[in-house]
Fold:
Amino acid sequence: MKFFPFSLEAKPVIEEYLNLHNHKLAVYSFENLYLWKNSYSILCAWQDKSLCIFFQDKIGVFSYFPPLSKEQHPETIQKVFAWMKQKNRKYPAMSRIENIEKELLPFYQNLGYECIEKAGDYLCLPDDMAKLSGRRLKSKRGAYNFFINHHKNFVYRAYNEKDKEACLALQKEWMEQRQRKNQDTFYLDMLSDSGENLPFLLDSMPFLSLQGRVVEIENQIKGFTFGYPINKDVFCILYEVTDLNKRGLAQFIFREFSSELLSYRYINIMDDSYLPNLKKVKLSYHPVDCVISYIAGIKQ
Structure:
């Protein structure tokens, strides 16, 4: 393998290979990769004209994607697993390829790898989210209307750098509210990761294709949302944080942002991490699809 540094300078070539196929999963974007820099060392390598992306921590290394190329080649996959096996001698179970799309599942199964299903990303139609029409979305429409009828002095606008500290303060308050309502260990870990990643995200805004919106009520930021385009067809909502005491604000900011995304075919609202409450919230928007992905590993 021929390695090269993961960096902003590598963004054009990485995006070229990410765009060889029309992906719908949120992970298939440079923005998603870049935001993992806080948690992992990201390794880029060429192997048989395929681009490989590995994540490494103190435990071991794994492949974040299948090798990126126009077609998958068995010999390339074998070389990738052989390299990971060498690196993961202490923890061989770390050797795996993540985020395999459903279309590639038979290929990996036929090669003899054990494939495990991951939580899927939910896709919504921008027009549905912008209108919130029909009986299915009546409760969302009602919450939206409640907000605009009870808050006259508010502003929905684009995020800018001077909003950073206010957004971080709101995130902290939101996390504390959530922690009081849900003591699930996995959920609390997710909240912690979210809190640690937000400052890095805000500092990275100038370098990435991230879009942010905030809602001010009486000159105080009470909600924000951030997202990025996966490709020309799919836009991903990465963050949405609102003051939980402001009824209807979450529905308002999501609807307003969706109204700006009508040029996309889908809005990806990401997965539910197998958390029942999070799944309930995402399903309440009646997504039109759930894009499943898989993890391939060597059968033990």
In short: DSSP finds ten helices and 14 strands in the chain.
